[in-house]
Amino acid sequence: MENKPFLITKKLQPENQESPIHFLSPWLTPAKYFYRRNHFSYPPLTPRHLWLQISGNVSQPRSFHLYDILSMQAKSLILPLECAGNKRAHFNPKVYGEQWKDGAISQGKWTGVPLAHLLGQTGICNQTKEVLFEGVDFGRKPNKEDMIPYKRSLPLETALHPDTIIAYMYNDKPIDYKRGYPFRLIVPNWYGMASVKWLTKIELINDSFNGPFQTDDYVYYPHKHNDHDSFPVTTQQVNSIIQQPLPFSLLNTGVHEIKGIAWSGKGIITGVEISLDNGDTWQRTVLERLNEPYAWTKWSFLWHVEKKGEYSIYARAKDSQGRIQPIHAFWNRKGYGYNAVLKVNVKIE
What is the CATH number of domain 8-217? Predict the structure, then answer.
């Protein structure tokens, strides 16, 4: 009987689970292994949630039924969604929040209709600055009494990008309930908080939205005790992980494959290097890409090792914008965007 991995539980209420990313090799993450990030309990859905309402600064407010959207020309994208708090557990000094390790990221094929196409049918009034998205899920934030829905906005330019889509399928099947059925916003290159699940309302606004998931959470706060120099979390950092070998593995002498994945929210991955001498020298790995503009890159390296002892394996990725993983992460008190070079320690016996 084949052994299979499981999701890694971080919290049950609301449910937050990591993907077993170190044991997944397909380009497309099966739905059952897709990481789960929730701020609230799963929402109750009714037939009215099969409608998507667009209002605000539009010429003609409209509501689109799921069947209306299914009848439109579709677009498919393969891309990774990554929680902004992915790798938070690696920060030093430690920060509060869900202690994600490496698995708050998954990649799949999303199919839907470009948001720009829907907005073309409602019209966009002058002075529109942002597009506001509201999910069905709701609840209370800690130390708050009021019930609030999950709401976030995008700059109009990002919302109108041809690859910002209203998705209704994942890996060629209807999006399942826990991943946002029936509608999920998909925003390529941005961290996952932008891809609102259970999407029910879209509103065009002429100012900057300042809801709690926009101007409190998902903000980089560089200082521990004040909000000076803060700025919003948006696109993914250049990043990578070592999938195999696992940390603190016991290995024999011989040939071992070191492998992993790399991704970036700006441009493409142009190289991944590994170091086996604590960063003194770096060696190139072999890259494997899909013909998809947003997909992560697989990388591998054959390590010939004959000398017994303890080793540290470092990996760092570079992208086409000239960004490279730093030795030290940009510390921020909510623990977003960790992308420092990670190391895996192994012992050759």
Answer: 3.90.420.10
